[in-house]
Amino acid sequence: MTDAFTSPPSRNLAAIIVAAGTGSRAVQDIPKQYVRWRGKPVLRHSVERLLAAGCAPIVVAIAPDADDLASEAIGDLEGVETCHGGGTRQQSVALALEGLAERAPEHVLIHDAARPIVVPEVVDRLVAALPSHAGAIPVLPVVDSIAIERDGMMAGKADRETLKRVQTPQAFRFADILAAHRAWQGASDAGDDAHVLRDFGGEVAMVRGDEALKKLTFAEDFRSSRPAIRTGLGFDVHRLAEGEELWLAGLRIEHSHGLAGHSDADVALHAITDAVLGAVGAGDIGDHFPPSDPQWKGASSDRFLAHAGKLADEAGYAVANIDLTIICEAPKIGPHRSAMRERIAAILGIDPALVGVKATTTEGLGMTGRREGIAAQAVATLAVFD
């Protein structure tokens, strides 16, 4: 993820992600933090967004038997490490804090893995509260009436104006929260870290949270009301010119002429980019990379397609299929077809088996028939993979 933060993230901000639970209420075959949601494991979302917040290092507390699941979810992300957690959330956090003790960061965020969307503005508000408070938590108002229950009967009501819904990440001065956990004498299932800090005598500020920080808890949270399938169509054409390099589907191909354009003029990747953007209703390539902007002069078109793939991922979709047709008299596409499929798949992070590349001519008709240019059209199919 490349979320933009409204202020520069702290250079001394570590993070702990609590991911040692079983998540049984989600009714999954594996703990919910490893279930695929919006195209990738839930834990991966949390890690990527905390990295985008400038957190380093990030320590993920996992169950002792979850090394393989965690390794698969985290992959090769730099600045991320794991530790084995304890039997409760409080024990897991305490172990992760001890793992950071020698490095002693100034601040630390503590976050639940099951909250995959970390909101940049919330992190900014949390960190901004730490100069004057030992800890800060994001909260939301309680909007429903609250009834007190006793033996299945309503026994009274609570004042919802004094109640808040607490979210994560929670932010702390590292030295204070470490000392609070070391001094904790209460039950091992302390609840959350703000409670531990407050018991130690630390003040905890409340900042405005965000509904996007919703915790994935039940099976229905992993289902989606969005259309399961979305399709987009893309088309592009560029003229052939002497002295230009020919780039097609991310490959440089030897040819007497190349395609002319503001970027590298790769009509194949441009068509696919527009198809993916169209599938998620995100406009077209010119909206995101206008030819009037000099920074895109000569730019490699793989950047455009990678951006479109990222937007699809953020919208909750994974690329299920790409079907590309290149329209030209020359060069011959057949010898390059396999390499093109692999290159397109690598840019989008999908299996080459999900990419189709075809070629056709216009039988000598039109600008492509006269070898004045090359055209391409593409269809992108996106699917919700929850």
From TrEMBL:
Keywords: Isoprene biosynthesis, Lyase, Metal-binding, Multifunctional enzyme, Nucleotidyltransferase, Transferase. InterPro entries: IspD, IspD/F, IspD/TarI, ISPD_synthase_CS, MECDP_synthase, MECDP_synthase_CS, MECDP_synthase_sf, Nucleotide-diphossugar_trans. 4-CDP-2-C-methyl-D-erythritol 2-phosphate binds at D236, V237, H238, H262, S263, D284, I285, G286, T360, T361, T362, E363, R370. Residues 230-386 are annotated as: 2-C-methyl-D-erythritol 2,4-cyclodiphosphate synthase. It catalyses: 4-CDP-2-C-methyl-D-erythritol 2-phosphate = 2-C-methyl-D-erythritol 2,4-cyclic diphosphate + CMP; 2-C-methyl-D-erythritol 4-phosphate + CTP + H(+) = 4-CDP-2-C-methyl-D-erythritol + diphosphate. Residues 229-382 form the 2-C-methyl-D-erythritol 2,4-cyclodiphosphate synthase domain. Its EC number is 2.7.7.60, 4.6.1.12. Pathway: Isoprenoid biosynthesis; isopentenyl diphosphate biosynthesis via DXP pathway; isopentenyl diphosphate from 1-deoxy-D-xylulose 5-phosphate: step 4/6; Isoprenoid biosynthesis; isopentenyl diphosphate biosynthesis via DXP pathway; isopentenyl diphosphate from 1-deoxy-D-xylulose 5-phosphate: step 2/6. A divalent metal cation binds at D236, H238, H270. PROSITE patterns: ISPD, ISPF. The record marks R25, K32, H262, T361 as: Transition state stabilizer. The keyword Transit peptide does not apply. Pfam families: IspD, YgbB. The record marks R160, K215 as: Positions MEP for the nucleophilic attack. Residues 1-229 are annotated as: 2-C-methyl-D-erythritol 4-phosphate cytidylyltransferase. One of its GO terms (molecular function) is 2-C-methyl-D-erythritol 4-phosphate cytidylyltransferase activity. Its cofactor is a divalent metal cation. One of its GO terms (biological process) is isopentenyl diphosphate biosynthetic process, methylerythritol 4-phosphate pathway. Bifunctional enzyme that catalyzes the formation of 4-diphosphocytidyl-2-C-methyl-D-erythritol from CTP and 2-C-methyl-D-erythritol 4-phosphate (MEP) (IspD), and catalyzes the conversion of 4-diphosphocytidyl-2-C-methyl-D-erythritol 2-phosphate (CDP-ME2P) to 2-C-methyl-D-erythritol 2,4-cyclodiphosphate (ME-CPP) with a corresponding release of cytidine 5-monophosphate (CMP) (IspF). Belongs to the IspF family. This is Bifunctional enzyme IspD/IspF. It comes from Alteriqipengyuania halimionae. The gene is ispDF.
